[in-house]
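Exercise: predict the structure of this protein bound to carboxymethyl coenzyme *A.
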Amino acid sequence: MSAKEVNELIRQAAEKAMRETDSEPEPGLTEEINWPIKVELHRGLAGAISNTTQIGYVNGAKGWLIYRGFNCFDLAEKSSYEETCHLLLHGRLPSSSELSIFNEQLKKYRRVPQPVLDVLRMIPTESSHPMSALATAVSMLGNLDANSEDISVENETEISLKLISQMATLAGAIGRIRQGKEPLTPNPELSHAANFFYMLSGTVPDEMNERIMDVSLILHADHGMNASTFTTMVVNSSLSDMYSSVVGGISSLKGPLHGGANQQVVLNLREIGSVENVDSWYQKKRAAKEKVMGFGHRVYKAYDPRARIFGPIAKLMAEKSAENKTIYEIAAKLEEVVVSELGQERKIFPNVDFYSGIIYKAMGIDTDMFTPIFAVSRIAGWTARALEYLADNRLFRPRAVYTGPIKIDYKPIEDR
Ligand code: CMC
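Solution:
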């Protein structure tokens, strides 16, 4: 299996997406309320518009994901994570000399200060989730940076670059420490994706694993105004520092409704155990009115383009071992069962998290490290969008429709 084969799968997924993209309009999302003026309530801020951006666009009806004008299929097939970061942060694909400079900057920052590793070693692995450890580590980086309070766009851009580089080192170190091993020193000879794989697993990846990790980092790099990006921007909009803003983003991404879903998917597939059990497992979930992790999306009401790419790659990886094959077959069956009931009618299809975990598992990565991989990539979108907003900042400050009483007389405590 080669990197070329992976690229060919992505091209085929792009063609399939083009064939299936229909012209369905975006769904309506509002509810009118009299409070005391007439307002439209959007639970979970659905459909609320927070700002303008040139960074990325998700068309939920058509299943498009676009970074600064480039569709995700092209970027996944032809680009690299480094190029994609340059695109998101600086607004254009780099020339070869710009890319060399950008790579050198990333390499320069890869090593993290020793006190951060010392703190990570103090975190009890039994009780802590790696995303919580990641948040602690980024907070510690901020505490160690004497320039962290300089919130000029110039300094925040430099910190963003540092964080893009170091998030991979931190996630690698957390993964190793959780296995009782020593963190590894970054290897300057390797690409960002290969170096991350190496720091996490202790093995330099072959060409195919490097390509797949790179594709995964590209596809997770940005995704509209998702919860963790919005959290990062909300924190940054108070003119807090970039480290604190990113700690917010990591904390938001951790949840199972957001980045934590990929971990849950693999746990569910293991729980199902065999293709024969899929139907009954799904019926039990439906009867209990529980959601099936890895399906549905706030914005996509069509097939998630990232899942279009990850599905065939997961199938390719499944050939590696009998266990991977079983997990993939259970997933494929679950997709069939869920989509046959909820697909056309409810527009619920697999999302990015459905097949990504299966891929990471086939790469030998521990389940609890799946969400940190998401963070290693999404740091690009978090920082790019926070920086774009900072240039013309206005504090985020929505309002809530108060539904409680407003005229209660205060009673002294002895009369209550
Ligand atoms: N399984 C079954 N039913 C679902 C699912 C699902 N995965 N997702 C949504 N629904 C149903 C839900 O029960 C509700 O039905 P009803 O109208 O009868 O009450 C309806 O669809 C709308 O659900 P919602 O939760 O209001 O929709 P939302 O737009 O707030 O949720 C979501 C989007 C991603 C939180 C949700 O689809 C979900 O919880 N999915 C499972 C978790 C998951 O896979 N998360 C990863 C998201 S993609 C990666 C990322 O962006 O982080």
